[in-house]
Amino acid sequence: MASKLVTSNGKAGQDVWTNDVEPTTLQALAGSKPVSMKARTTAYTAVWNYIMTKNAAGLYAQSQTFFAEYTMRVATAAPSDDSALPEYYDAEWDRFVPGVKLANRILDLIHKRYVKREPSECHGDILTVRNLAFKSWKKNVLVGLLPRIDTVDKARLERVWGLFAAPELDEETLGDMRLSAS
């Protein structure tokens, strides 16, 4: 039986993710109601307590798995009517972006303690949680649905595709990544 990494307050990394970070992130991704300050603070504090006593790599790996699985579910839930795909894509994108921003803030300590340090220790490129999420979106949603999207202007599709190539997506760029021009 594998032992869990446990923080000084008794929480294991998996527990921090499952009980604190994931529910808050899912609520933000659902977009149905705002995430309370208490929920944000609880999640951030749990991450802080865990990272101050353990390596951030475990939470980073969990965020990587979470966003890969979440974006696969978005792609799988797409409507079978291809003409409805642009509207579906845009609605999901509009929910995804604020959720990613919140998760990125909650997991900010991962950036300070892991993401920024790993490349300098010759472990290759480690993406921020935000860029990790957007990379998963591109791979699982955009690439997955692209062959079925034929009602969107090709120049618009090429623009959205090209925007995903940027190393960091700024606020203005995020707003321009919908399939329907805003």
From TrEMBL:
Transmembrane segments: none annotated. SUPFAM superfamilies: Cullin repeat-like. Residues 33-142 form the Cullin N-terminal domain. Gene3D superfamilies: Cullin Repeats. InterPro entries: Cullin_N, Cullin_repeat-like_dom_sf. Belongs to the cullin family. This is Cullin N-terminal domain-containing protein. The lineage of its organism: Eukaryota, Fungi, Dikarya, Basidiomycota, Agaricomycotina.
